[in-house]
Design goal:
With about 300 residues, this protein is α+β, with helices and mostly antiparallel strands. Helix content is about 25%, strand content about 45%. The chain has a single domain (about 20-310), classed as Lipovitellin-phosvitin complex, beta-sheet shell regions (Roll). The strands form 2 sheets. Strands 7-6-5-4-3-14-13-12-11-10-9 form an 11-stranded antiparallel beta sheet. The chain has a 3-stranded antiparallel beta sheet with strand order 1-2-8, with no helix packed on it. Helix 3 runs antiparallel to helix 4 and helix 4 (about 150-160) crosses helix 7 (about 235-255).
Length: about 300
């Protein structure tokens, strides 16, 4: 809380007060009022738990890292923004290989653009990220060369995530979370429902999904508001994408075509919930929390992400 108060005080001296909060009609317009070289640091915490049969926790993982968010360029209708990932720490792990893959993001830079409202538009340095990923995966493959067929698994990963679209889907999930609510107007107490495209972390086409958004809180005294949303992915598309991904990876490892019948994949459910507290005069998120549930048969994967300004 002390750091958040310091953040507010600093803003009083360096920024004009463009409040996004309209008290007259209890609405907020989420806009990024950012200037060239504005910079904030956020702490990310990612935790996952895999549960079988409703009660047995079989896997637990937890990592933390810092991200420096900096405005590299600012025009009338475009922001160019850099995210620098650093100080990654593995706090809990059940998968040493995944630990090494997670560490690939340490000291990584992602450069992207948003429109004047702060809505994400596109990834700028995707080829640099692809090359960095391939080099890092080669390093991981050498370290775990004793694992049978691991080199083939790595080659499958490279092929699966080799296009701009696949790199963008995998590299920008935290960015998309951070800017979830930017660019729209919300009214206190009203729910907005719409159809959306949800990123496909398996590397294929985005999923169709349903989105519900609500403005829960407006605090004019402390100049912030709280927004929440719920997303549900199309179960049929999610199951089909899972089958496609498994078949591609299995074919790469086996070095021959492998086709898993669709009826061998149990029903898949993907639900996601997000809440965000946003500073009214600047559009910088103060915190973002995401909870997602992915259910496949009797296995439930719980994933939690928290983002807090430092």
């Amino acid at each position: 809380m002390k750091k958040t108060c310091t953040f507010f005080v600093a803003l009083l001296f360096v920024l004009p007060l463009f409040s996004q909060i309209n008290q007259a009609d209890s609405t907020v317009q989420v806009i990024g009022y950012w200037a060239l070289h504005d910079k904030q640091t956020y702490k990310f915490t990612e935790e996952s738990n895999q549960i079988k049969n409703g009660t047995d926790t079989v896997k637990s993982n937890k990592i933390t890292y810092l991200v420096d968010v900096e405005i590299l360029d600012s025009t009338a209708n475009l922001y160019t923004i850099q995210w620098l990932y650093h100080d990654l720490q593995v706090l809990k792990s059940a998968e040493p290989v995944m630990d090494e893959i997670s560490k690939l993001s340490d000291n990584m830079k992602i450069i992207f653009t948003t429109n004047e409202m702060g809505q994400y538009e596109g990834l700028v340095n995707w080829m640099e990220l692809r090359d960095r990923q391939n080099s890092a995966l080669d390093t991981v493959a050498k370290r775990f060369s004793s694992i049978p067929n691991f080199d083939k698994y790595v080659e499958g990963m490279k092929k699966q995530f080799s296009t701009k679209e696949s790199i963008e889907n995998s590299a920008t999930k935290e960015i998309m979370l951070f800017y979830t609510f930017h660019g729209a107007r919300y009214k206190l107490g009203e729910e907005l429902n719409t159809e959306i495209k949800m990123p496909n972390m398996l590397g294929g086409e985005p999923f169709d999904g349903n989105l519900t958004v609500s403005l829960d809180t407006i605090d004019t005294t402390n100049d912030f508001y709280v927004l929440r949303c719920w997303q549900i992915a199309d179960a049929g598309q999610l199951a089909a994408a899972t089958v496609d991904f498994v078949n591609k990876m299995a074919s790469t490892i086996a070095e021959k075509s492998v086709t898993l019948p669709k009826n061998e994949i149990p029903p898949v459910v993907n639900e996601l919930r997000i809440s965000s507290q946003i500073h009214g005069s600047t559009g910088w998120p103060l915190y973002v929390y995401q909870n997602s549930d992915v259910s496949v048969g009797n296995t439930l994967q719980l994933n939690d992400v928290s983002i807090e300004i430092q």
